[in-house]
């Protein structure tokens, strides 16, 4: 079960023209933004990644605008874990649970999950905040991560797990985010 004091959010490669080709892209974008906003509200660290932005383009404005004050970590590997700067930043958070959002589910998100699980992190995939160009590849990626031992969650499920109670100011603010 997700615990807010153990969690970190990892945003994977929501960039350039490729982002415009994602399955149900508008809902995908909204859910990534919801996850970022909710994590910020709950003081959960966010680590933002881009793959070869000089070739693939930068993070799309909708997502980038949700992360003021943060800068992307640039990678050339499919897995975020192939970037020593990412691993250093992740270790510095001292968190053991990683929530993954981004694209493509069956490539970069999957390979990141695989490496994180091999490094003894608990991985939680926000299934409504990941995408691929086809529903089939998205589903294959989700199933492969589940087979590796990743927890499959959703934006709303993750927030309510971390909140534990249905009252208070944070709960009211999270309700407004997930509406």
Characterize the largest beta sheet: strand count, sense, and whether it forms a barrel: 6 strands, parallel
CATH class, named: Alpha Beta
Total helical segments = 9
Radius of gyration: 15 Å
User: The CATH topology, please?
Assistant: Rossmann fold
What is the average of the pLDDT values? Answer: 97
> How many domains make up the 3D coordinates?
1
SS strand fraction? 15-25%
Helix content: 40-55%
What is the string of helix and strand elements? EHHEHHEHEHEHEHH
Strand tally: 6
Give the spatial strand order of the biggest sheet: 3-2-1-4-5-6
CATH architecture name: 3-Layer(aba) Sandwich
Termini, distance in Å?
Answer: 23 Å
Return the structural class.
Answer: alpha/beta
- Annotated CATH homologous superfamily: Isochorismatase-like
Shape: globular
Low-pLDDT regions: none
Assembly context of the chains:
single chain
Structural notes for this entry:
The chain is an alpha/beta fold. The chain has a single domain (4-178), classed as Rossmann fold, CATH 3.40.50. The chain is built from 9 helices and 6 strands; from the N terminus they run βααβααβαβαβαβαα. A 6-stranded parallel β-sheet has the order 3-2-1-4-5-6. Helix 6 links the parallel strand 4 and strand 5 (122-131). Helix 2 packs antiparallel against helix 9 (169-178) and helix 6 packs parallel to helix 7 (135-148). The radius of gyration is 15 Å and the shape is globular. The model has no long low-confidence stretch (mean pLDDT 97).
